[in-house]
């Protein structure tokens, strides 16, 4: 759990912005709710390496340097994250949005040591190439994994093998759990309900859910499928129901929760969605088991919690409110003694006639812990 700069600030990121976001994580209570990593995405680096071959921060936007920024973040009880490209360029450089060629391909050992020396706790490592060779990708991501391990510093390793790749994306096609802590299974999310786009284009909330749902067996302690960052509070295109559904489904998928909004200007509603203790508790359940559709229904998921717990989500994808229900038999229960307690509202729903039913608004999700 944490915050990433890209969705709101892109290549306009500065050390002043990062410091302000770190402060806001603390003052808003989100740090105490579990959002503990501050990740500086692409465009933090100078377009060229230093004379000794090391990466260096952009001197205008990050004049204090990355080690000083890490110190600032650490002093607030937070972890510091950084971004790098797995090839010769970062993704912004690959697309021509940022100058230079300062990817980590061929520089893995020196870059890993540099990151560790700066106090980095989290590395987002992006593919940024149209080369679709699986062997080449495995070699690149494994080389950086081994270089990070060799530093002796614990660093969360978050990879995206999909950037720049058209068609079937490698993050979904292959299981990367032996290489990375987190693996992106789709291309980038955008703040909309659905784009009806394929895997190589920007995708909305439901597109991402449908793409990641079949990959639940890959999730376990230390290996997470990453459905991309939260778009809660990013722009004004999502409704409150849309945002609750993203949080609910990321929790059902046991996914990382990386906020991407401007924390210094977020509304009380956005903060309430991001900080909801009931939903975060489901997401962070120590069983670390992703949920799956019930009977292949994309609107209804179940997820095992703890030793004997169960949570069910019912998402209304229709354009009108409706009563949604799930058969208790499909959840492994008999009789009508089952109660579903909504994690968002605390409202208790008693099963009847062998089914658990609840009214769900347009694009909203009922997230029911089963008793």
From TrEMBL:
Catalysis: reaction(s): Hydrolysis of terminal, non-reducing alpha-D-galactose residues in alpha-D-galactosides, including galactose oligosaccharides, galactomannans and galactolipids
Known EC number: 3.2.1.22
InterPro entries the UniProt entry points to: Aldolase_TIM, GH, Glyco_hydro_27, Glyco_hydro_b, Melibiase_C
Pfam families: Melibiase_2, Melibiase_C
Keywords for this protein: Disulfide bond, Glycosidase, Hydrolase, Signal
Signal peptide range: none
Annotated ranges, domain Alpha galactosidase C-terminal: 296-370
Protein name in UniProt: Alpha-galactosidase
Organism (species): Gordonia desulfuricans
